[in-house]
Predict the structure.
Amino acid sequence: MKHVTPREAYAYMAGHPEALLIDCRSEIEFFYVGHPVGAVHVAWQEAPDWAVNPYFAREVLAEAKSRERPIFLICRSGRRTLDAGRALETDGFSDVTNVLHGFEGDLDERSQRGNRNGWRHDGLPWEQR
């Protein structure tokens, strides 16, 4: 699995329209916190029990149509994507990239996100529904 910053991911995807950005946060995070424009939602874990989605790789494959397609994974802070990425690689996906710092970024000294790094912090396109 590769690891890139949000800006590096955005630049790569801008030049490679075949790349697929999978947001693996929960549905509530995806819709109410916001998400990168063009991201496809496939939850790695979901409320209320936060169990790992046993169909994650199958659902990503349904979106990607090929295990060779470049897949970028984003979550809140870039940690859930590590497990999700390993699961995709185990399932045979050959080009998986983790977006470091995720959508909201790392915690700052006041235990708040969005002030240090992350997709939104970097001013990259995002939307909220």
